[in-house]
Amino acid sequence: MTGNQPETVLDLTGLLCPLPVLKARKRLEAMPAGAIIKVIATDPMSAIDMPHFCNEQGHVLLDQSQDGGAFIFRIRRK
Fold first, then answer.
1. Which letter does DSSP use for residue 7 in this model?
2. Active-site residue among 7, 8, 15, 17?
3. Active site residue 54
4. Which whole-number Å values give the CA distances from 4 to 27, 46, 63, in the listed order?
5. Any residues with CB less than 8 A from the CB of 34 and at least 6 apart, and which?
6. Under 8 Å CB-to-CB from 62, ≥6 apart: which residues?
7. Fewest Cβ atoms closer than 10 Å to its Cβ: which of 19, 29, 49, 62?
8. How far is residue 73's CA from residue 48's CA, in Å, rounded to a whole number?
9. Does position 22 have pLDDT exceeding 80, yes or no?
10. Using alpha carbons only, what angle is made at residue 16 by residues 50 and 76, rounded to the nearest 5 degrees?
11. Is the pLDDT of residue 4 over 80?
12. How are beta strands 36-41 and 60-67 bridged, if at all?
């Protein structure tokens, strides 16, 4: 699925809603179709906002997990 394609990591720790989604959107727009980004956020609302954003924009949420206070999302650009 991902092959040897490197992931871009976007660390958005400390940012509050709506900044994690807005910054993820901006980064995804600059990436080629099919590229994968790993987003790290600490805002609890990102657990709701990021999947909703992906669904609305047509991106694929490959994985969503939590590591302590960090929420980790792997997203494939449409």
1. P
2. 17
3. no
4. 20, 28, 18
5. 5, 76, 77
6. 36, 74, 75, 76
7. 29
8. 11
9. yes
10. 25
11. no
12. unpaired
Q: Which two tokens stand for residue 8?
A: 């871009």
Q: Which residue has the tokens 């080629």?
A: 32
Tens-place pLDDT, residues 25-65: 999 999 999 999 999 999 999 999 999 999 999 999 999 99
Superfamily of domain 8-76: TusA-like domain (3.30.110.40)
Which residues, at least 6 apart from 50, have a Cβ–Cβ distance to it below 8 Å? 20, 21, 24, 39, 41, 61, 64, 71, 73, 75
Report the alpha-carbon distance of residue 21 to residue 38 in Å, rounded.
13
User: What contacts 67, CB < 8 A, 6 or more positions away?
Assistant: none
Token pair recorded at residue 40: 């790290």
Q: How many residues does the chain have?
A: 78
